[in-house]
Amino acid sequence: MRKILFFAFLPTLLGWADPYTHLRQLFDFEAYEKRIHALTNLPAVRVFSLGTSRGGRNLWMIEISPPTPSHHAILLLGSAHPIEWHAQEIPLRLAEYLAHHREKLRVFCYILPIFNPDGFAYMRVIPVFYASNRKNRYYPPTEKRPSIYTAGVDLNRNFGYHWQKTSHDPSYPYYSGERPMSEPETIALEKFVSQTPLSLVISFHSPGKTVQYPWGYTLTPQTNQKLIHLAKWMAKTIGNGYKALQDSANYLKPGCEIDWFYGEKGILALRIEVSKKLIDTSLEDYTAIQTMIESLVCTPQPWW
Ligand SMILES: [Zn+2]
Question: In this structure, are strands 108-112 and 73-77 parallel, antiparallel, or unpaired?
């Protein structure tokens, strides 16, 4: 970790141009908040905070109401892993698009683009492709003690359905927490879900070009055909080489979000792993994903 810190700060120490300028600009939480709050001027859009992260940053949720009341609601959840920049930017752009086209909506839309704001803010200060930049953070970026510098929880291993303790060491890159639902972010999301009837959750991550359905914690095949068909329909509608598969097909993910939404809360839940790259600033799949989401929430669908 000392080496990573040294190389991240080396150009600054030597007075060189910062090679991370472009990356730092992507991870601008204040600019993100400005874009979120710009939506509050639009009709039928409500922006509210689910609560705050450990570092005191708001978990901003955007609610967009359809012109006629609906019994159904969809949640679009940005990546729990801040390093996956475009898996947060895509839900934000979808929120901006749907907020400006709310007259077409048939269902309520809830969109939480940045689920891990402390990790996002960390990427601006130390924008390295290190596995711990998947996590939330127990300490601010000014904390340099190597033993605790990387302490934090992989939020996508902290959900409370077949949760497993991955390590006793909070610095472990895939640390799942002291117990299930231990983090301010997962606790705030659980409170929202308990108060809001949801029909479908789509969680964004990267990379993979896949649409993944539960289960993530086991290789036992999924038996809910509606879930499998929906994943296949989404992959086909996006096109661009996207494929549907069970979440555990590449590796097991105990404590992941879609298992909890589906297994614990009984809500249809899928994950889109966008792009082939971990960070894709071209957003080349955005238009295809927008077309699929628009079809899902603006036209009659058998899933509702
Ligand atoms: Zn991820």
Answer: parallel
CATH number reported for the structural domain that contains residue 239 in this entry: 3.40.630.10
CA of 204 to the centre of ligand 1 (A): 8
Between CA 263 and CA 218 the distance in angstroms is: 12
Question: Tens digit of pLDDT for each residue in 148-159?
Answer: 778 999 999 999
Going from the Cα of 77 to the center of ligand 1, the distance in angstroms, rounded, reads: 12
Q: Give the distance (Å) from ligand 1 centre to CA of residue 14.
A: 34
The pLDDT of residue 23 is 85
CB 132 within 8 A of CB 155: no
> What is the 60 CA–ligand 1 centroid distance (Å)?
19
H helices present in the chain, as ranges: 2-13, 21-26, 29-38, 86-100, 117-125, 146-149, 184-195, 225-238, 257-259, 286-298
Structure token pair of residue 43: 């009709």
What are 177-216's pLDDT values in tens digits?
999 999 999 999 999 999 999 999 999 999 999 999 999 9
User: Does residue 303 lie in a domain region?
Assistant: no
* Listed residue (253, 13, 42, 34) closest to 157, CA to CA: 253
Structure tokens at 290: 């927008």
Q: Which residue type occupies 271?
A: R
* Ligand 1 centroid distance, CA of 65 (Å): 28
In a domain, 95, yes or no: yes
Distances in whole angstroms, Cα of residue 73 to Cα of each of 65, 194, 201, 261, 290: 9, 13, 9, 14, 17
Distance 198 CA to ligand 1 centre (A): 22
Centre of ligand 1 to C-alpha 84, Å, is 6
Task: Count how many domains the chain has.
Answer: 1
pTM for the whole structure: 0.94
User: Distance, CA 173 to ligand 1 centroid (Å)?
Assistant: 12
